[in-house]
């Protein structure tokens, strides 16, 4: 009789983990869906310094290296294809903004070319990435 009482007591004291696992699984799905992933332009640049630098997240990153090559989404882009590439990326995320990451030795003409293409597309939020001095 004592064996039957022990098993009955163990059954009453057991905790069902199924609802907890359901909640954890739903939370995992929520965090995966709402996560923002870091996008990289594809080229490492040495940014110029500025005293008013701020940290912001961006949806479109464009890098200009010291050789004045333009890199968008890990691909080198020709000057004539900048507008088309920006249009495609902006169509994927119309609420996002553009950050231009020029190298210290990059030409200001390339920065102006990208900013002008962004303005023609309708991207209103354009900024230039710098290092805080």
Automatic annotation (TrEMBL):
Q: Which family does it belong to?
A: Belongs to the ExbD/TolR family.
Pfam families for the chain: ExbD
A Gene Ontology biological process in which this protein takes part is: protein transport
Bilayer-crossing regions: 20-38
Q: Which UniProt keywords apply?
A: Cell membrane, Membrane, Protein transport, Transmembrane, Transmembrane helix, Transport
Q: What Gene Ontology cellular component terms go with this record? A: plasma membrane
Entries under InterPro entries matching the protein? ExbD
Where in or outside the cell it occurs: the entry states:
Cell membrane
Membrane topology note: Single-pass membrane protein; Single-pass type II membrane protein
Q: Among its keywords, does the record have Transport? A: yes
What protein am I looking at?
A: Outer membrane transport energization protein ExbD
Its predominant location is membrane
- Annotated GO MF terms: transmembrane transporter activity
Keyword Cell division carried by entry: no
